[in-house]
User: Which sequence fits this backbone?
């Protein structure tokens, strides 16, 4: 009887949170409010402290103390990593280094002969660049300015080109990505680089390779079906662009690569290189090189000031969201509703597959409705270790498909910033973008599940 009650309460609070977010209420406020309310309900029903042995001595004061503990653990751990990493990425955008890197990759891609082979190559290259340019909107718009005109000139429809430039940002992975850092440190308890190289990288590689081929074939078919054989009015050479077009030295395009190269290089030595240290080294290299090039100390000081401002901005937007989501996740965890459901299905044939689908669909639905893959992942991701333990499987088998599903699903959401921005620049309707992208996103979602199951369950 109590099990059914807690399952119903879990569903109720999840639905309340979803409805409030759909009403355009701030996600941070929703997670704080609903999470605190749920913790109070759990405390009232069980008569036990939500802090366990670490109680303050008052059951209801313990609910507030949960928020304090989440703030401390998040800020001193994952939070400071995200603030440093994000500020480095934003500095790269500000200095034009990201544009140079994107243009250099574009110059290589346009040497391919077939328009749709180029389209598949653009997707694969964009997904790789997502490791260094972590903003989906920024990455998509950089490619809009460089690759989009060439794709269209070669005969690819504006619709297909726009969809691919949205989906190059669907993989939230790599040691610089905020949600991946969260997954590594808060869910799997590993370093961001270990999460990237030994866990998520395998699945992402499989999805990227399959989807690059899928996009090339499926969009060639769809363009022919919907638009006929469009002739290119220009060739790629007439629309050639260069990394030299952005007013900074070409070698600045190497700057976004510095942290990842450092972490990978030192992983083969006895020296430990944390992602924060790697980014700090990157800052020093960038500032010194920029000072040599510009001989402008005032500019260096201004950029340094911006770095700290970006850190503060990221704290108020993402780190506080992480704390709020952690409070909500703790409340759902304390209710044990999802654990109870997992226990019910644990003896069923295919229990692991059912759990993978069930949890990833929660993320998928929330991402579609909100346009964000980050918020639902931070809210539900921390539940996976307990569920995996019940099922007797690796946490990664549940966490990875959940995490990647958020990024995949948001590419079909009319509320996603990248969908809105890129559709507008490409002058195509958002509803047409979503319709065209629906089949590929289903394929990517299925591939995500299949690859994860094979790598972390079957093998």
Assistant:
């Amino acid at each position: 009887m109590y099990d059914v009650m807690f399952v119903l309460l879990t569903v109720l609070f999840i639905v309340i949170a979803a409805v409030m977010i759909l009403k355009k209420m701030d996600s941070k406020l929703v997670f704080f409010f609903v999470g605190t309310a749920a913790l109070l309900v759990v405390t009232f029903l069980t008569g036990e402290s939500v802090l366990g042995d670490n109680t303050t001595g008052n059951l209801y004061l313990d609910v507030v103390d949960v928020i304090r503990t989440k703030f401390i653990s998040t800020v001193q751990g994952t939070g400071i990593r995200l603030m440093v990493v994000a500020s480095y990425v934003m500095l790269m955008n500000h200095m034009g280094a990201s544009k140079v890197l994107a243009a250099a990759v574009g110059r290589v891609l346009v040497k391919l002969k077939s328009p749709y082979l180029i389209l598949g190559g653009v997707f694969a290259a964009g997904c790789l660049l997502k490791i260094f340019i972590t903003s989906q909107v920024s990455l998509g718009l950089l490619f809009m300015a460089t690759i989009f005109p060439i794709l269209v000139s070669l005969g690819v429809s504006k619709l297909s080109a726009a969809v691919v430039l949205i989906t190059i940002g669907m993989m939230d992975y790599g040691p610089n990505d905020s949600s991946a850092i969260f997954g590594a440190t808060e869910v799997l308890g590993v370093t961001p680089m270990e999460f990237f190289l030994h866990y998520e990288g395998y699945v992402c590689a499989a999805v990227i390779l399959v989807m690059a081929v899928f996009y090339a074939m499926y969009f060639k078919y769809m363009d022919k079906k919907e638009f006929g054989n469009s002739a290119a009015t220009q060739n790629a050479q007439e629309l050639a662009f260069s990394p030299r077009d952005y007013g900074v030295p070409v070698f600045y395009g190497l700057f976004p690569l510095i942290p990842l190269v450092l972490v990978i290089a030192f992983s083969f030595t006895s020296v430990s290189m944390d992602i924060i240290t790697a980014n700090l080294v990157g800052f020093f290299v960038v500032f010194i090189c920029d000072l040599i090039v510009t001989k402008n100390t005032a500019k260096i000081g201004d950029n340094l000031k911006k770095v700290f401002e970006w850190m503060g901005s990221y704290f108020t937007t993402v780190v506080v969201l992480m704390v709020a989501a952690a409070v909500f996740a703790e409340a759902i965890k304390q209710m044990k509703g999802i654990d109870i459901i997992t226990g019910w299905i644990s003896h069923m044939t295919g229990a692991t597959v059912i759990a993978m689908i069930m949890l990833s669909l929660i993320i998928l639905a929330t991402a579609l409705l909100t346009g964000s893959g980050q918020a639902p992942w931070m809210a539900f991701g921390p539940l996976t270790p307990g569920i995996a333990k019940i099922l007797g499987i690796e946490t990664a088998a549940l966490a990875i498909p959940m995490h990647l599903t958020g990024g995949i699903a948001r590419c079909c959401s009319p509320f996603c910033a990248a969908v809105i921005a890129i559709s507008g620049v490409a002058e195509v309707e958002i509803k047409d973008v979503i319709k065209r992208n629906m089949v590929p996103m289903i394929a990517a979602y299925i591939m995500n599940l299949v690859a994860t199951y094979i790598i972390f369950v079957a093998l």
